[in-house]
Amino acid sequence: MSALTVQPRSRLFHGHEWVYASDVKGTIGNPAPGDVVTLRDVKGRSLGSAIYNPKSQIVARRFSFRRQDLDQDFFVRRIERALAFRKTLPIDQELCRLVWSESDGLPGVIVDRYGDHLVMQTLTMAMSMRQDLIANALKELLKPKSIIARNDAPVRKAEGLELEKTLLHGQAPKPFSIKTGKLHFQVDLYEGQKTGLYLDQLDNYTKVARYAKGRRVLDCFTNQGGFAQACAVAGASEVVAVDISESAVNMALQNARSAGVASGRARRTCSTS
Fold first, then answer.
1. Looking at the chain, which terminus has fewer C-beta neighbours within 10 angstroms, N or C?
2. DSSP letters of 203-268?
3. How, if at all, do strands 24-28 and 3-6 pair?
């Protein structure tokens, strides 16, 4: 396995899992983009395994403190660990982020769950090259009806990757409605923001709404109106939701009507300078 020698004062020695190009003192071997490399300090001591991409300013991302390859068994183990952790949290297990990149030891991998359907993003070259292995691990563990790859995030360009949307397994659902607590949302797994919905914000909607009762609320960049809807449900005296996208505003209003808190209408205003 090829190796990178890391500069003594690199971020890696202060808890950061990324190695920037300026942190590399030398390269041993001839690693190719997407390869797994060993990280070493200047005395030759191993610092763990990382994914490598010289096309990015972040040339290496550590995923293990020991020698480790990226095979299907590895992905099964890491995803199992992520699922076990989610089960300890007070979240909706059927509507949540199952895998969150470095937080779950899978740099650049995001997996969101919408009931029987999974949406995956592979935002690093190494993980994109192993997309099928990740999908197979997900099929083994969760038996989903579909897996959609939403690899249309602009950050992929920094890794030298194309933007694309791909059906990896099953049949993708048409846009559908979901309810979480008292909140209502429309979900389009192919065309919606991020992977269809801002799943990583669901808890924040509730937390912010605790302070909303009897108050006037402004929700800018509202998208589907998550914060606005939550605050209205919590008893805000007035809520204004703003977004540049007309379709987003209409969807936010539709969600609010489904939740029984819409009394206004969508309106679009534009200004030029």
1. C
2. HHHHHHHTT-TTSEEEEES-TTTHHHHHHHHTT-SEEEEE-S-HHHHHHHHHHHHHTT---S----
3. antiparallel
Per-residue CA distances from 197 to 121, 134, 155 (Å): 13, 22, 18
- Cα 128 to chain centroid, rounded: 14
> Which value, in Å, is the radius of gyration of the alpha carbons in the chain?
22
The model's pTM: 0.88
Contact 137, 79 (CB under 8 A): yes
Nearest in space to 196 (alpha carbons), one of 128, 121, 103, 256: 121
Q: What is the DSSP string of 140-184?
A: HHH--SEEEEEE--GGGGGGT---EEEEEEE-PPPPEEEEETTEE
Q: pLDDT tens digits for 168-214?
A: 999 989 989 988 889 999 888 988 888 888 888 888 999 999 999 99
Read off the DSSP letter of residue 112.
E
C-alpha 32/C-alpha 130 separation (Å) is 14
Q: Which amino acid is located at 188 in the chain?
A: D
Phi, psi of 69 (to 5 degrees): -105, 165
Residue 178's DSSP bridge partners are 185
Residue 85: pLDDT above 60? yes
